[in-house]
Amino acid sequence: MKIALHLLLCAVLVGGALARGESAPRISNSSVENVRKPDFTVTGNNTNGNGVIAYNPNGQLLAVAAGDKAIRIYDARPGDHPTAKLSKTLIGHAASIVGLNFTETNTLVSISLDQTAKVWDVASGKLLHSADLPAGIQIRIAIAPGHQFLAADSSSGKARLWNYQTGELLKTFEPNDSWASVLAFTPDGKQLVIGTEKGVLRVLDVATWRVTKTIDLDAPNHALAASSERISVGYGDGAVAILNLGDQPSVSEVRKQNEVINGLAFSPKGDRFASASADKTVKVWDTATLQLLCSLEGHRAPVLSVAFSPDGQKLASIDAAGNVNFWTMPPPVPSGLKP
Predict the structure, then answer these.
(1) Burial class for 267, CB neighbours closer than 10 Å (0-12, 13-18, 19+)
(2) What CATH number is associated with residue 211?
(3) What is the pLDDT of residues 251-267, one digit of tens each?
(4) 107-112/116-121 β-pairing
(5) Segment 104-159, tens digit of pLDDT
(6) Please, what's the largest Cα pairwise distance for the chain?
(7) Domain range for residue 160?
């Protein structure tokens, strides 16, 4: 069901699943936005449609894969410098990189269209481990946080769980409604959220591979992120929805961006989320109220991916031209001032 421009649709629990209604209050598109420009920019190359970024655990480094075979590690603390400093370049993949994540020990995991997963020591730049990961032409990749050695891909209409350390295929889930299109792990890596082209979300318990929740949104899911309590969904028409992982009524949808949502990310505390759009902007929202906190403007190409620093005070985003922008987040909104 197409989301009308003049409506905000509310998702509510119905018989164990969520259905979309039309009773949510409207959030005006004409509200005054807090527009922010980037603190600094790293100029890159065309991404060929693939651009992924990830902060390391202490937020001092940012890993960037911009559509080519290399991973660039930047010092994300520029100080008096006008831009981030390139620290290292990791070479070893034979095709574009489609997944990146740091482990708790500060090693970096990368997954590429060359059908391999690699683990890197970022401090030395050495390749520690490589495993064949025959995931096919991956549509989307998610890497579980921490030391669980888990990655998931959506390929050939299925969602598959892998041990990226050994390359072993652990489990496969095939939705019965349509192809799996997007997926995201919760921060503890214990749940995997899978979205389909028909707009059905399923939450799977990773240990048992059992579906614990089904959410029917009736519109194709284009981007996805998960916090410990909520799910954020982005659509092809620029709409964003927030849904609860628990059994409480879900928060309403909002529409603020003008084009497709390419990427979503929650802050570490889950109190904010950011949406990256083909309209060349990033919007930052209050998760509880859906208040627009700021609009980040400065990209000159569609924004592909976005990531918060571990302390939630910084944000980085990459666009289709390979440019990475770094931003400072606004301070938290006092609870008494929230609508």
Answers:
(1) buried
(2) 2.130.10.10
(3) 666 777 789 999 999 99
(4) antiparallel
(5) 888 999 999 999 999 999 999 999 999 999 887 766 899 998 778 999 998 778 99
(6) 56
(7) 33-337
